């Protein structure tokens, strides 16, 4: 059930329908396809009563109108699991003037009606079971997640109805500390991470609806590890009118959904989560991991050869299929974070480059992406002599990208394949196999990431996070070196007298003060101990002197 990020990239085979269900990091603006909720299955023909004349046998209108499509489900990734989680609470908050819904109804209510304030519904979901699977050696990748609601038949008048959508907004603070008197413009209510299908007419009957929840849950179950998990303060469901020029404060018809107390579990608000436990790339036992964080990183674009893209996300590939549209990423790592006084570069046993995948972009996104998307990493050899990489000025032209040769095996550092089903915001590991890492660090000024073996027609390309992201690991070079254990010790001269003390303090809680402390007959040794540890972006070292005293504990005077 576990796999390393690199191996999962090359061994995971997408299922036949994965191209239509894989989550996208842009899902916050994508609504579910209408076909998923309105298409009548072809199996409805099975309800047709046979007739002696085949030409007159047709499906009855009642069977086609009452057949309910099967509920949507996220697709379980190969080697992964699917779970359903019911919401814990659904509480309606509203601005003044309030009515009987405020903090009391068991329904989910959003919107505004005449005579009452704007209503939102606060929803809490417990992710602890999934978060509990994250640890130092394993991450949890959420491939896809959906949230499900059931709309209630409206009892309001249709003349006041305004087309609308229900949005998902994470909370930046606990609900108790949020100003609920202003629910429209509130800095503690974050930007929408998703929205349900538009409701264009007054609901005349109960019906189910759903939307993607992947972007939302990844805030709380971050694929890069628990250290990046956001505090789970819950979400609020908020109404947004779709007609231009209509304000959320304008009177319309509020939308009501079934709540957590509904007897039918399928009608209760709930989510499904399709995830996989993935092994984190680590050094071997007895080795120490050193992280060289990114110093400069930038995308360069042949279509705009003299344009600098500092601070943008990192795109790799040829989106229109021709070399004239090619985009590459150039990276320089901060090699000063490698302590050359403590370690030798020649002792590096293994290394890998880490980047964080964001999504497939352009030309249809993930649904239209190739099954496999290969990237080659080469050393940067094309800068003019005497120059260095500078992300603030780097362009396709001044970095000499026309002269990069990805076919030169002597310059290839490593390769990686990004599968179509790779979830957004997940780590990608590029293992450095045969290339001399010491040489890469000391003799070259960076690396270049290039898309290869691409389609010659327009297609989506992979995009990665740059170094400006705070909630995901930045690009980094990880190296492994043998741990250094210091055992140096020195014997001391034999001592011939015992310690003397001043009179004890009159304050019972204070210890006596030592004025002439010497080591009793015996011996002691000392050594310099160095502890080093790292997170994914930094390396820390602590040095201290350890003194070990050895003497006869049976001699009470000396023991003092």
Please explain how this structure is put together:
About 35% of the residues are buried. The chain has seven helices and 25 strands. With about 550 residues, it is mainly beta.
Give short descriptive properties of this protein.
elongated, disordered N terminus, single chain, mainly beta
Q: Topology of this protein?
A:
Blueprint: H1 5-11, H2 35-38, H3 61-66, E1 81-86, E2 89-94, E3 108-110, E4 119-124, H4 128-131, E5 138-151, E6 164-170, E7 194-195, E8 207-212, H5 214-220, E9 235-241, E10 255-257, E11 270-279, E12 287-301, E13 314-315, E14 327-333, E15 350-361, E16 372-379, E17 412-419, E18 426-432, H6 437-443, E19 447-452, E20 461-464, E21 476-482, E22 500-501, E23 514-516, E24 523-534, E25 539-550, H7 556-559
Antiparallel strand pairs: 1-11, 2-4, 3-10, 4-9, 5-8, 5-11, 6-7, 6-9, 12-14, 12-21, 13-20, 14-19, 15-18, 15-20, 15-21, 16-17, 16-19, 22-23, 24-25
Quick structural overview:
The chain has 560 residues and is mainly β. Helices cover 7% and strands 31% of the residues. A hairpin with a 4-residue loop joins strand 24 (523-534) and strand 25.
Q: Outline the biggest β-sheet.
A: 10 strands, antiparallel
- Mean pLDDT across all amino acids: 82
Number of helices: 7
SS elements, strand count: 25
Structural class: mainly beta
Low confidence ranges: 1-66, 492-512, 551-560
Radius of gyration: 31 Å
Task: Assess the beta-strand content as a share of residues.
Answer: 25-35%
What is the overall shape? elongated
| N-to-C span | 58 Å
